[in-house]
Structure formats: C-alpha cells, structure tokens
Amino acid sequence: MSITASRFYAFKTLKRIIYQGAYLHLVTRNINLNGRDRAFFKLLVNLVLKSGYKLFEKLSKEKLSNSEVIALMMALVELKILGKEKYIVFSQYKSIPEKDFSEKRFFKTLKKLENEKNLIENEISLPNFIINQIVDSKLDINSFTKNFVSTPMTGFFVLSHSKEILDLLNSLSGKLYPGRIFKNYYYTESFAEVLGILPKDCYIVISESSMLSVLLLEPKPGEKILEVGASPGGKSVFLEYVLKNYKDNLNKPKKVISVDISESRISALKKTCEKYKLKLINPTLYTKKTVFDVSDKILIDAPCSGLSTLDSKPDIIFHLKESDIKLLAKKQEDILNYYKDFIRVKGKLVYSVCTFTEMEGKGQIEKFLQKNKNFKTFEGVLSSKYINQDIIIKDGMLDIDWNALSLEPFFICCLEKVDE
Ligand SMILES: C[S@@+](CC[C@H](N)C(=O)[O-])C[C@H]1O[C@@H](n2cnc3c(N)ncnc32)[C@H](O)[C@@H]1O
C-alpha cells in the first residue's frame, strides 16, 4: 500500500514548515484535496506542530534524515493521539518516496519510541521560552492550552446584510456557530463549503480579538485617521465598514491613511482594497520622506511575536527564537516613539499586538508612559452595535476574560494625548 494523498501532503507541508521556514497559512492555501482528505490533512499537520515539539527536539538528536524525523512525528501522533491501529500506521509510513528516507531506520526508531511514555501527549508541547512567556504574562496556562490540540475553527465577519446573504447564511445554519463577542460573526468547521457558497467580498476572515482594536479606536466620520502597520488589511476592511455604518449627518468620512513599511505588503493591502471595493482606505508606503498630518486617531498594529495566534498558526513554535522577542519589542518602541508625534491633543492612540509577552505589551506601554507624561491611559465603556455586551476599559485595556471566551489573548491598549 502506498501512503495516502492526505498523509503525503501533510508530510511535504511539515517538511517545508519545519526545515525550510515556510508558513502554515501560505503552504496550505492551495492544497488540492477533497473535503474529507483535507480535514485529515489539516488535523495531522496541526497535531504534529502543536504536540510534537518535545518529540522534534528528541528526534533531532538521533541520526535521522529530515524525512525520517517528519514521518516519525506523524506516525507517533497517529498512534498516540489519534489511537490508530499499529498495522495501519506501519503500513502507511513504510513507503515514503523520498531519497533521504530509509524504511529500516524509520522502523528501528519507531519501535524504540512507540512504548515510551510522555513522549507525545494530548496537550501543548512548547519550547521552554514560550512557556516562560505565558507564565510571566500571568495567563492561566491550563485554560490557554485547553483546546490547543484541536484544529481551530475559522471565524469570519459578515459585511453584507442583503436578503440574498441572509438567506445563504440561513441555509448554512447547521454549519455555523455564533461569534463570542461580535454580532454578524460566525465560526465554522467546514470553511471550504461555506466559502464556496458565500460571495467572496461579503465576508472577511478575521479574528474577533483583531476587530476589537478597531472598536477601541472608535473611528468616526470626519476624523483624520492614521492606520500604522496596515497590511494586508484585515483591520482596514473592518475600519471602513465601521466608518460607513456610522450614522452621522454632519460629517463625511475622510480617507484613512493606511501605512506600511513593506512594499510587498502594500501590494497585498492594495489587493484587499480592490477585493472589498474599499473607498476610504489609502494604502501608503512608509519611506523616510513620507510626511504625515497630525491626526485625530492613530491605530498602531505593530509587528510582534504573534504568540496569541498559536492556536491557528502553531508553526510559530518552529519559527520564533527567544532573541526575536527582544528585537520585536525594540521595533515596537521605535514605532510608538515615531508615530506619537502625529497625534493631536485629546487625540486617541490604540496600540495592538497579537501576542501576550510582557515586553511587547504591558511593559512596552509602561515604558512609553514613563517617557511621555503627556499621554495617559483611557478609561471608559465600549458599547457598540457590533458587540453583544458592553466592555469596560480599565487602564486603557479591555477588561475581558480572553481565555474563558476562547479568544486569542491580544494585547490592546488605548492612550489619550492630554497635552503637547
Ligand atoms: C501585525 S502586521 C499588520 C496586520 C494588519 N494590520 C491587518 O490587520 O491585516 C504588522 C505590519 O506592520 C508593518 N510595519 C513594520 N514596521 C513598520 C513601520 N515602521 N511603519 C509602518 N508599518 C510597519 C509590517 O510590514 C506589517 O505589515
């Protein structure tokens, strides 16, 4: 028997991610498998990435080729987490058509490891420095890792409320779960099916946590808004949606200056603008010569370690190095220091990162406030037509239990400039 297509795709994908640094969401975008095989492929890749880190460290010390390491991680996940019969797993992995794969070496190591306890568990297996970051940030590690070893559901926000779209959503109702915070937000396990039915520009795949930073900014028509770190534009789409839906007879929405430092990412933002027919977003490439007007509001979505998205992007475990966190924190500090000068007195600045490390979140803001006494944190209540319940803002931060709601625990903070 030769290895099944779903396992072989999973094997190739894992090899690219772990040894060549490819990104999960990019390599899996164009996988051509039918629904059932695709689901199994996704499950295997996710389980290996999420639960196999300790195993990977151990196997890396054995005299094995890259193909053998990957095949062993997959085989052990099938045996230990999925509880597959030994004969199925053994027959599947003996015929991997790769030059650096030896059936003999593979079986020798598999036999040696198959009875080893605690080698691969039905729970998160992370590099120590990431565990330390979770502990330091005071996130409850048990709830954080609770649903980690499952394939995440895809969440999307519906942008159109035409009768046609509402009818389509009704026809999909058995396949959709409601948003945890947002109205018009849905989760689905069968995204491919949902995708095939809904028109492409009527929804946006975005996390609920990500949308919260836009709400915290409270964008209003007539305001000058600067969006920093805008590409590929998930937040831009929601920002334009909020501005257009604002009932305001006095002010017309002004164009949002959506800045990014990367040329290729600005192209991605332009594509997003085309796809969603965005009229208010003005993609702007940052160069040393770019001059910005003083704005009423600034949203900074800074580059970060992305650890809050581990559930949907478990490949971060293999990409991120401990030293990267310090470099990213320095970048964020520079960005905050540069853009703070473009905000008017009584203007609002929202800083957000999709991570929970102290250094990139709370610590970063404390340092900023120490140096910039003319800024203070914002207190208030977020009550919006887009969310199910009011959210309190304490010390500039959203007072919500990210873990209990199974939301990605983003760090989002809102500051006000009190004087020059
Ligand atoms: C977290 S991503 C942004 C995601 C985006 N806001 C979205 O919702 O789709 C951070 C972005 O910041 C950009 N960036 C990094 N340094 C920057 C700088 N100094 N000025 C502007 N953008 C920057 C990166 O190129 C990257 O696209």
Report what the structure shows.
This protein is of the alpha/beta class and 420 residues long. It folds into 2 domains: 5-113, NusB-like (N-utilizing Substance Protein B Homolog, Chain A, Orthogonal Bundle), CATH 1.10.940; 208-417, 3-Layer(aba) Sandwich (Rossmann fold). It is built from 17 helices and 14 strands. It has a 7-stranded mixed beta sheet, sandwiched between helices. Strands 2-3-1-4 form a 4-stranded antiparallel beta sheet, with helices on one face. A 3-stranded antiparallel beta sheet has the order 11-12-13, with no helix packed on it. A hairpin with a 6-residue loop joins β2 (176-178) and β3 (185-188). It is globular, with a radius of gyration of 23 Å. The mean pLDDT is 92. The structure holds S-adenosylmethionine (SAM). S-adenosylmethionine (SAM) is lined by residues 228-235, 259-262, 265, 286, 301, 303, 335.
